Amino acid sequence: MQIGQRMVGDVAIVEITGDITLSKGGDVIIKDKVQSLLQQGNRKLLLDLGNVSYVDSAGLGQLVQVYATTSHLGGSLKLLRVTKRLKDLLVLTKLLTVFDSYDDEAEAVASFKK
Amino acid sequence: MSEARLHVTDAQGRRVVVLDRPLFMIGRRTSADLQIVSTDVSREHAEIAQEDGRYLLRDRGSRYGTFVNGEQVTERVLQPGDRIRLGRTDAIELLFVTESAKTTGFLDSGTSDAGDLRQMAAILNGLRALGSGRVLDEILALVMDSALEVTKADRGFMMLANTEGDLEFKIARGRGRTMLPGTTFTTSEKIPREVFQTGQSRIVNDLMDADIKDKHDGTIAIGIRHVLCVPLRVTPPSSAPVAARSERVIGVLYLDGKERSTMLSKATQSSLEAFATQAALAIESARLYAESAEKARIDHDLKIAAEIQRNMLPDPVFEVGAIDLAAESIPCRTVGGDFYDYLEIGERGLGFALGDVAGKGPPAALLAAAVQSNFVALAPVSSDPAETMARVNKALLRRAIDARFATMFYGAVTADGRLSYCNAGQEPPLVIGRNGVAWLETGGPVLGLLSIATYEFATVALEPGDLVVVCSDGVTEARNRAGDEFGRDRLVEAVRGRQGRKPEAVLEHLIAEVKLFSEGAAQADDVTALVLRYRGRG
Description:
Helices cover 40% and strands 25% of the residues of chain A. Chain A has 114 residues and is an alpha/beta fold. Chain A has a five-stranded mixed beta sheet with strand order 1-2-3-4-5. Chain B has 538 residues and is an alpha+beta fold. Chain B is 31% helix and 30% strand. In chain B, a hairpin with a 4-residue loop joins strand 22 and strand 23 (418-424). In chain B, helix 2 (109-130) runs antiparallel to helix 3 (136-151), helix 3 (136-151) packs antiparallel against helix 7 (266-312) and helix 8 (361-378) crosses helix 9. The A-B interface holds A 22, 27, 31, 57-58, 60-62, 64-65, 68, 71, 92-95, 97-98 and B 358-359, 402-405, 407, 423-425, 427, 443-446, 449-453.
């Protein structure tokens, strides 16, 4: 799994490529990334999951965890380009309603301004 | 043929030296065959020459004289039991002894000693075959003592490489079967390292040799001058796969002494090498034994954990009034992250739950136990399934286990067939009966992650004969060898047309179908299912 980051205005976009699974340590990488962004004062986080092929239960747990951590600090964490497979998982676990998710980056970035 | 020795008593203590050269020099000089440091001893004090099988002691013009049995001599043929004194006092005494051919056998002494070592190696080999790793240290100490006895070295060390490849002392023995105190010792650092790296034995006759002297000051300072160092080499058995049949050096055997003695003979060296190979194998098998013992301990703990987990689950078959049910949980490892439970909750009827914790193995099993206990404690004091779920969620959040969560389905059936339920992210259970198939999806998000989570419950009316089938995702996501999932359609097929049958029969058939489907593929997840039947009143 690879993780990258870029800023669009004051929105930090975290780009994830590969599987988010316990066995590949993806869950911990995401946690560390989000925590460091929060420590740097970022409060608007957008996770781009367009290149994520598979998320296991540990990965899913971590996505919710970083969402909760961000909310707790008064920030917001949203999802961009959720794949069909992850969406099914979010529906099954009834977590889809928890996240704001977008297919279009510009629209997602704009949503933070509301 | 006989072997002559001197039992030496001086300021350094007692020791034995072998008269193994035609001309044996005794003196204060460091190059002497027997060096004795004393102001009473001249640099070249005396010599013992072997002539025609006799041992001739000659004074080399020493300042304070050479005495045999109290009598000053310039030249004397030594007899066994002769006491040689150097200088003016009794502080330095050399007792001359011989071992007749009768006691050492017909072989010459070197081969005889080497034979002892080979015997020792054979014993070691036998012990290794027994795989008795616990007594390894004692065996090695015993063997070290024999090596010291045979070589007449003063000290013996076994050094093993740690994971970083640095040599560490494993055993340190001195003459007279003593354990040398301490954890580090002054030995040559260079010689063992070289032997370890090259796998070649080293014999160093005299650390005073100019080219290496400066590197061994510490060793020379304590009087050590002769070193024999052989590699501890592990040669895998010929039965091992060719790729794994390479030799490895795991450490070194290091012997040193103040006197030249027999440790420097070629015969001793080759026997010691053979012995070192056996010792290396013994150490290696002890290491494997220790690893397997550790593994056995963990396996044992896991078996107990699995037993506890099974005992935490209620009876697999239960019946009360109009309701009967059957459940089964098959962990994919020794312990699993799935659970089921049921309990009577007064007028609200029978409550039943099935849960699944993210992950597998012991961590999941512990969290599953926590979820299950919370459920059992909170269900009876909640007014409806949604409240139970919200309470379980909060209870898990209070014990915040980083990013770990559980899914759970909880339903309660009354005697008149009203099923109230709440589904927290669990694979939806199905109700199958005369009215077709219905999936039970109402509820809320998975448990243990979100403090803001809210839960809803729904109620459905069961008809007599209706079956409720709850399962973990290990059932629907079971894969066959082609990688296809069992899925919801196969689940429906497996139970369709079986309404009215006993739940245990339906369950048995379902599990059999899942096993048949995934035959040949490894079970990737815990498989748990619960089947409940509403029989109707009267």
